[in-house]
Design brief:
heterotrimer; A mainly alpha; B mainly alpha; C alpha/beta; A: mainly alpha; MetI-like fold; 10 helices; B: mainly alpha; Cystine-binding periplasmic protein (chain C)
């Protein structure tokens, strides 16, 4: 007995708000992945370092990022730092938390990729007179990124999904906006379905873009 | 007027402990069914039937691109308007199983791909049937290569069970029971750090246990793919 | 007495009752026959729905449900329904009636059936206890404001927000009151907009030295809330309406107001208008 009648008119009426919120989701996702990747590279190098402090700093970061729920990380970035007198806006807090999370996971992914690269390449690069930084930028990471491209795209999707938790601390991203609209119209099914479709589109857009970048960079 | 205690009580600790137990049960049950479904899907994608490959691929893509919160609400509302209301806890477990199955399917496929084709050919050449070869060659070798990724998925699943709270599923799991306490004593930070510690301990021990297991495995004879 | 005839009659009567039941499934009859009234209540909105020390449901809405079950002569079951689950729960029959302080807007009434009003709330502004420069809701221009997503306080604020946005006003839409209060406490927002009843509850407990209830949000109309049932259950809705009316007439509504909100119930008929 499927006697429910879908009412899509009300969703169309609020289409602009949904799109605006989707752009916010897209923006935070892209920024958090870019920053996360940069920090993740540094962490993965430090993880290999002989310096005990750098090693433990990295190990702690990775363990905390991977073993606690992202929601908690967002909460701590907003209210936890707030209790210490450091105030972020909801936008910055979500971006910082998702970046922190991304960096932890990406560092681990990159470390796995670095293990697959023969140590003799380091020797060769250093032997050619490269500085360690040059070695990582020109020799190691291009190969690592290529080797672990798939797990990285997975992480991009995770990051996008993680932004939806930002609604708890006041961010009007796509899930937050959808929740607001459904509470005004009492049409949860229509609005959440619309949001699911938008997420799918945003996700595919990001992935296609990532593949294009990779294709340009790695010359597949 | 109601006399509410505005501090953390022993009762609250028991509620959180029970919540941790529920989190664990949710993880085990949906992890089991999710792995089972994911295994079938991953195996289906390795058969070399292009239409099956893309059909299942579409399913995986959709499930992975939509936030779990939205999947919970959609599946629950869909059952509701279709006239088959089931309690939120069960609908939550089904959603979680389907959700994690999409990820497991990718891992399973990677595991099957990790087995060198020459090895499969050799096994078949020795007179093994397709299923014998799958059971005794592909599964053991594939499992070893993807065990770490699978563990990662299960840890992710444990943290994701917290999102079932959006349905008000009862009994409450760890994060939901923390929120219940927060609503009463208005002390979100301390409670959530406590909840985070619970998660950290559960995840960390599983991680360490699996690492130990892998190490002991590796020392028993390494499989080179 | 002719036994076979008696048996035939009994069987015929049983058969008829089954047919009648199938022919017109009436929710009110079902509830009475099953002996259970399932109420969908939100339990993260003190003081209308919350939990006590043993984490059992209490609050205005919880007691309202228990009263209703008593009037029906059945057992009350409290089902917690978070925001996104409120409507699916009602549509699917997982709950019979939603008692969740829901504002009876015309937009929402397109999706569910509302009873006559059973609570009236006012939207107000609260600031940090040591704040001195916000003394009217118009002072919110240029300030950072926190609301709870989807509440009438948020809707009231948003109607003014467009004119204030140019003056540097920002707003955050939080997931629940717990986050909203914490944000005010930490100074992440200068003021919060919410129903005054909720402020009252908070100010009595944890928020005693933390917040100051500043003022009414005067441009916002009072918030008239109703019980919710499935839209086509007109028969049940008739009974629910009469129940709400009796609660008021018997003084029970007033009693609940005093217990949970600490003041008398306001008039629940809109002046100068027929009906409600």
């Amino acid at each position: 007995m499927f006697d429910y009648r879908f009412q899509w008119r009300v969703v169309w009426k609020h289409w602009p708000e949904l799109l605006e919120a989707a752009l916010l989701t897209l923006q935070i996702t892209v920024l958090s992945v870019v920053f996360g990747l940069m920090i993740g590279m540094v962490l993965s190098v430090w993880r290999k370092s002989d310096n005990k402090i750098l090693y433990w700093f990295t190990a702690t970061w990775v363990a905390l990022a991977r073993n606690t729920p992202a929601l908690l990380q967002i909460y701590l970035a907003f209210f936890g730092l707030g209790a210490l007198g450091i105030h972020f806006s909801p936008y910055t807090a979500v971006l910082a938390a998702i970046t922190f999370n991304n960096a932890g996971y990406l560092a681990e992914i990159l470390r796995g990729g670095m293990d697959s690269i023969s140590p003799s390449q380091r020797g060769a690069a250093l032997g050619l007179g490269m500085k360690p930084l040059q070695m990582y930028v020109y020799v190691i990471f291009p190969q690592v990124l290529k080797a672990v491209f798939l797990p990285i795209t997975n992480q991009i999707v995770w990051a996008m999904l993680g932004t939806s938790l930002g609604m708890i601390i006041g961010l009007q991203e796509l899930t937050g906006m959808t929740t607001f609209l459904q509470s005004q119209t009492f049409r949860p099914f229509e609005f959440y379905l619309a949001a699911a479709v938008i997420y799918l589109i945003v996700c595919e857009t990001i992935l296609i873009f990532a593949r294009l970048v990779a294709w340009r960079a790695f010359r597949w | 007027m109601n006399n509410l205690t505005l501090t953390f009580t022993a009762n609250d600790f028991m509620l959180m402990l029970q919540g941790a137990g529920i989190t664990f049960v949710l993880t085990i049950v949906s992890g089991f069914f999710g792995s089972l479904i994911g295994f079938i899907i991953g195996w289906g994608r390795s058969l070399g039937l292009w239409w099956l490959y893309y059909l299942l691929g579409l399913f995986i893509e959709v499930v992975r691109s939509v936030p779990l919160i939205i999947q919970f609400v959609l599946f629950n509302s869909f059952l509701a308007i279709a006239g088959y209301p089931i309690d939120p806890f069960t609908s939550g477990i089904i959603t979680l199983s389907i959700y994690i199955a999409a990820y497991v399917a990718e891992v399973v496929k990677a595991g099957i791909d990790a087995v060198p084709p020459t090895m499969v050919k050799a096994a078949r050449g020795l007179g093994m049937s397709y299923f014998q070869c799958f059971r005794f060659v592909v599964v053991p070798i594939g499992t070893r290569s993807v065990l770490p990724s699978w563990t990662g998925l299960m840890l992710g699943l444990m943290k994701d069970t917290s999102l079932i709270a959006v349905l008000g599923a009862s009994p409450p799991e760890l994060l939901r029971s923390s929120q219940i306490i927060i609503t009463r004593i208005q002390e979100p930070l301390a409670i959530l750090i406590g909840a985070g510690a619970f998660y950290f301990i559960m995840c960390h021990f599983i991680t360490v246990a699996v690492q130990r297991y892998e190490t002991s495995w590796a020392s028993k004879g390494k499989v080179t793919a | 007495m002719n036994l076979p005839n008696y048996m035939t009659g009994l069987v015929a009567a049983m058969g008829l009752s089954v047919v009648a039941h199938a022919a017109q499934a009436d929710l009110l009859d079902d509830i009475i026959a099953d002996g259970e009234l399932k109420c969908g209540v939100m339990l993260d909105v003190p003081p209308v729905g919350m939990r006590d020390n043993d984490n059992n449901p209490i609050g205005f809405d919880v007691e309202f449900c228990q009263d209703m079950a008593e009037a029906l002569g059945v057992e009350a079951t409290i089902v917690e329904t978070p925001g996104p689950d409120r409507i699916p729960a009602i549509l699917s029959g997982r709950v019979h009636v939603g008692i969740a302080s829901a504002t009876n807007t015309l937009e929402r009434a397109k999706a569910v059936g509302f009873s006559i009003p059973y609570q009236i709330w006012d939207v107000g502004v609260a600031v940090a206890a040591d704040n001195t420069d916000i003394n009217s809701y118009t002072d919110l221009a240029g300030k950072r404001v926190g609301t709870v997503r989807g509440t009438s306080g948020e809707v009231a604020f948003l109607s003014e927000f467009e004119t204030w946005e140019d003056q540097g006003t920002t707003y955050s839409s939080f997931g629940s009151n717990a986050e909203q209060f914490l944000a005010l406490q930490q100074g992440k927002v200068d003021a919060i907009v919410e129903s005054t009843t909720i402020f009252g509850e908070y100010a009595k407990g944890e928020g005693a030295d933390v917040i100051r209830v500043c003022c009414s949000f005067e441009s916002a109309p009072s918030d008239w809330t109703g019980l919710m049932v499935k839209r086509n259950e007109q028969g049940f809705l008739n009974w629910v309406n009469l129940f709400v009316w009796h609660q008021w007439k018997d003084g029970r509504t007033n009693e609940l107001y005093n217990t949970w909100f600490g003041y008398d119930a306001p008039q629940m008929s809109f002046p100068g208008v027929h009906g409600y």
